[in-house]
């Protein structure tokens, strides 16, 4: 997708279960059109969507079905669900998808999350972020491990990681800290190297102390 274009979003859900019929608005700055598909999502392979929004009651069941339908396509996914338990959120986040808990976001956040997903940022609504943090705290000696990990980062890098873990992207972090987006991205590259992380999702998992829980 070129920066001058608005997004094409695939909406994967059972007929009649999408709660935002008025989204996107005609003047939405990020989303141009929405293509709908229902389980088992066979049409997703044919459409050229920039992002997939999966609305489901049971992500543990529907998310793997969606990934199978996408096959080798690397289209970013955002899960929208009423489920907010730690196990469900962590599993979806580990799979590389964003997570929005129903009732925990506004329609405008859908567009922001979709745009963030196209640049590699995994978006979490506040309740999803809290669930991920809770999962980290359940780990034995999680506090000590997290402190040792965080000590690897400079105070500025710690500020950036704290904001990244709350669902903000590089541009939003820059605005909060009065830094250029380029400076934030340079800091993120350094952070990923220090944390031995593959990208933003992996870095957040490590920052929150959740990575050891997820390894099999």
Task: Tell me about this structure.
This protein has 216 residues and is of the alpha/beta class. It has 10 helices and 5 strands. It has a 5-stranded parallel beta sheet with strand order 2-1-3-4-5, sandwiched between helices. Helix 1 links the parallel strand 3 (51-55) and strand 4 (77-81). Helix 2 (86-94) crosses helix 4, helix 7 (170-177) crosses helix 8 and helix 8 crosses helix 9. The longest helix has 15 residues, at 181-195. The N and C termini lie far apart (35 Å).
List the keywords.
single chain; 216 residues; alpha/beta; 10 helices; 5 strands; globular
In summary, what is this structure?
This protein has helices at 59-70, 86-94, 107-118, 126-137, 142-150, 155-164, 170-177, 181-195, 200-207, 211-214; strands at 7-12, 31-37, 51-55, 77-81, 98-101.
State the helix count: 10
Strand order of the largest sheet: 2-1-3-4-5
Largest sheet properties: 5 strands, parallel
Q: Calculate Rg over CA atoms.
A: 17 Å
Q: In whole angstroms, how far apart are the ends?
A: 35 Å
Instruction: Quote the beta fraction.
Output: 5-15%
What is the chain-wise order of helices and strands? EEEHEHEHHHHHHHH
| Global structural class | alpha/beta
Shape: globular
């Amino acid at each position: 997708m070129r920066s001058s274009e608005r997004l094409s979003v695939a909406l994967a859900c059972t007929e009649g279960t999408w709660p935002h019929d008025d989204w996107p608005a005609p003047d939405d700055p990020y989303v141009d059109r929405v293509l709908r598909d229902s389980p088992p999502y066979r049409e997703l392979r044919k459409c050229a969507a920039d992002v997939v929004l999966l609305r489901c009651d049971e992500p543990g069941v529907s998310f793997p079905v969606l990934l199978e339908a996408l096959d080798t396509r690397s289209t970013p996914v955002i899960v929208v669900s009423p489920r907010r338990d730690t196990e469900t959120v962590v599993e979806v986040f580990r799979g590389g998808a964003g997570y929005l808990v129903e009732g925990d976001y506004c329609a405008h956040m859908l567009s922001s999350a979709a745009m963030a997903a196209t640049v590699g940022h995994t978006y979490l609504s506040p309740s999803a972020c809290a669930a991920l943090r809770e999962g980290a705290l359940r780990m034995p000696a999680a506090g000590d491990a997290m402190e040792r990990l965080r000590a690897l980062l400079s105070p500025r890098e710690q500020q950036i990681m704290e904001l990244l873990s709350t669902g903000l992207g590089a541009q939003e972090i820059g605005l909060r800290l009065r830094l250029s987006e380029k400076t934030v991205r340079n800091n993120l590259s350094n952070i990923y190297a220090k944390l031995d992380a593959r990208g933003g999702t992996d870095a957040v998992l490590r920052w929150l102390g959740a990575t050891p829980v997820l390894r099999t």
